[in-house]
Amino acid sequence: APKRQVYDKTFYMLELRKRCTDLQEEVEKMNQEIESVQADNNLYAQLEKRYDSLVKTVRSLEGDLADHNLATDKQRTDTRPEEVHHMFLLMKQQNDQQRADVDQVFLEKRGHEEEIQHMHEEILSLARAAEERLSELHPDQQREYEMLREESHHLNQELGDSRDELDQVSGRLNTLEAHLRNDVMRARSQMLLSKRREVHEILEKLETEARQCSLSIPEQRDLLLAKVKSDNAEIVATEKSNSDIKLMKERLRAAIQEVTSDAKETDMQSDQQKYEILFSKDQEMTSFIDSFDRLQAEEENKLKDKQDNIERLLVNIAKATEMRPDLSPEGHMREIEDELDFKSRQLQNSETTQNRLEAELNKRAGELEKIDSLDVKITQELQQVEAKMEQYNEEMAVKLDKIPELQEEGKARLQRLGARPGDPQGG
Predict the structure, then answer these.
(1) What is the pTM of this model?
(2) What sections of the sequence does the record tag as coiled-coil (predicted)?
């Protein structure tokens, strides 16, 4: 159909009404979606409440079921009612203790919350006092303060953005490094480079041989003689090294035999040395454990002092408006930052010392466990040695009891041996 040639006011009004109608339909559709989302949120909140109540009910029923199963097991195993009652009293005592602990934790939590609220109120009061002090300043000083505060806020925001960017760059770098490590083409490239080096070495050897072949006969003879001399020198050095190794092997074998023979003679002495080492380790562990509480208390006191200093520092920071007339705001801020850095380093050193002491305690506890296990092992070895000594004593006693019989048997054998040369003559 032919299009309209002239667009008058009526045409534009119709188009505008169409657009308005479409917008109203979209708005109604969005309102309906909003209402459905709100209804879903309300339903989700109701279901979440019901879920919490059902979880509590299930936990209560699980406790009842555990009690029922315990009672059934006791009844099945013919447990006496007195034992069940005793177990009930023990569990009741444990539950009371846990309830008291939970109440104590709740009270501590409430105390901390009150302290936090009190500190928040103090911060607000200090902020109000700072605002009042700022209102008393000259307008130029107020504008300068506002500019500095906006600049500080802007710098903090830039610092946060820079840290986020640094984290993103570090993550990308780690991802790319992992990708490079797992890249097949890179591995193939390294393999080809190594193969290239090998081929280059072979090529150099072939070029060297080709140059040798291109030499004259006397030059080749001299080169071969030099090579034979170097090979003979290497053979002599290798044989000498081989003979030295054999001599060292013999000396080591003799030393091992000597140590083996000496070890049998020095078992009791080694046990005595082990006991002395154990006793010294035990004394060291005992002294460390005795002094740990004192050292920990000292470090905790130092940490508390540092915390008190930080609190005083915060109070001083809150009074930042009371600056000296001879000090600029930048200088005052630098002084506060330097003092805060110093206190933070002191606090970090205290925490590091405490962590080191705890690590040392854990290490000593592990050594004590090893010493206990070694003591048990030595006791077992001593028992085995005593059993072997008893066995040897019994064998020696049996052999000593057979000495007269062996003497008589030897005499009889001598008589028979002495009588044999006379038998032919008698015959």
Answers:
(1) 0.24
(2) 13-64, 249-409
